[in-house]
Amino acid sequence: MSFESDKIMFEIYKETTYQGRYKVVYFTELQDHNKEHEISRALAGEHFYDGFIKNYRKEQAKEVINGILDRLNNGETLAPDDVDCALQAFKPV
């Protein structure tokens, strides 16, 4: 069983601006000085995927997420299920 402090909540979204880039926001890592801005940007975008990753090995999970963002931003078509499979080892139980 995971405790709240053992996991990080995140969302992958697509910006609705001209560039339409895919971005990620790690909600539980936001600080007071950037919280409102980052949440507003995510809410203004098109939702693609959200979930939790374990705090343990979070850097490896973030590398996987960054790889997914690179693929999406380079025009590759991925489904949320593809993201789910790629992050399976990093998801809390």
Query: How much of the polypeptide forms β-strand, as a percent range?
Result: 15-25%
Rg over C-alpha atoms, rounded to the nearest angstrom: 13 Å
Helix coverage percent of residues?
25-40%
Give the number of domains. Answer: 1
Shape: globular
Give an overview in words:
The protein has helices spanning 35-44, 58-73, 80-86; strands spanning 7-14, 22-26, 46-54. A 3-stranded antiparallel beta sheet has the order 2-1-3, sandwiched between helices. It has one domain (4-90). The chain starts with 6 loop residues before the first strand and ends in a 7-residue tail after the last helix. Helix content is 35%, strand content 24%. The mean pLDDT is 92. The longest helix has 16 residues, at 58-73. It is built from 3 helices and 3 strands; from the N terminus they run E-E-H-E-H-H. Strand 1 (7-14) and strand 2 form a beta hairpin. The chain has 93 residues and is α+β, with helices and mostly antiparallel strands.
Features:
93 residues, alpha+beta
Outline of the structure:
The chain is α+β, with helices and mostly antiparallel strands and 93 residues long. Helices cover 35% and strands 24% of the residues.
Question: How would you summarize the topology of this molecule?
Answer:
Elements: E1 7-14, E2 22-26, H1 35-44, E3 46-54, H2 58-73, H3 80-86
Antiparallel strand pairs: 1-2, 1-3
